[in-house]
């Protein structure tokens, strides 16, 4: 097994990976360690850029790894790297949708908070991301899955088209076409919301 660079993962994950390596794992679980070694740092980086929050990225990564382990090697199939990225993106999208729902209901919560406190204390402000970035993330969650996958892997993860195509089991030209279509749809959605 190759060792991860000490700075490749956040501190919390470094200790988890070292503990897993230190224990003797069964041969049927070696596949998950190999997958985490190869793709773990890239998936964490993808989630970090996608979610804009270290804690959210770590939570999404943890839920992704738990899902992989619960599915098992046979259920995932031969494209384990692609499955890992897709599961991570789905976890990130779900967190963005949850954040969007929370922000939608935040004014009512803040109003309730202010009415329930006599003093001038203010509720904490949700400053995870700027207004424009929040709108863009919300628009990405509304894209069809085939376009969303390409835009997340290409733009947020920064992967080259060749790798995006390999992970999603599509052609490089198809990946370029999907990215182009995703950008056009995002422009339409953000333009309509601004108007």
Give structural notes:
Helix 7 packs antiparallel against helix 8 (161-168). The longest helix is centred in the middle third of the chain and has 37 residues, at 80-116. The model is unreliable at 1-7 and 117-129 (pLDDT under 50). This protein has helices at residues 11-22, 30-51, 54-71, 73-76, 80-116, 131-141, 145-156, 161-168, 172-194. The chain has 2 domains: 11-117, no CATH class; 129-195, Orthogonal Bundle (Arc Repressor Mutant, subunit A), CATH 1.10.10. It has 195 residues and is mainly alpha-helical. Helix content is 75%, strand content 0%.
How is the secondary structure organized here?
Elements lengths: L10 H12 L7 H22 L2 H18 L1 H4 L3 H37 L14 H11 L3 H12 L4 H8 L3 H23 L1
Summarize this structure as a short list of keywords or feature phrases.
195 residues; mainly alpha; Arc Repressor Mutant, subunit A; 75% helix; globular; disordered N terminus
How many angstroms separate the termini?
Answer: 53 Å
Count of strand segments: 0
Number of helices: 9
Total number of distinct structural domains: 2
Q: How much helicity do the residues have?
A: over 70%
Largest sheet: none
Proportion of beta-strand residues: under 5%
**pLDDT < 50 runs, ≥5 residues:** 1-7, 117-129
Please tell me what the overall shape is.
globular
Query: Taking Cα atoms only, what radius of gyration do you get, to the nearest Å?
Result: 19 Å
Structural class based on helices, strands and sheet pairing: mainly alpha
SSE pattern: HHHHHHHHH
Mean pLDDT: 77
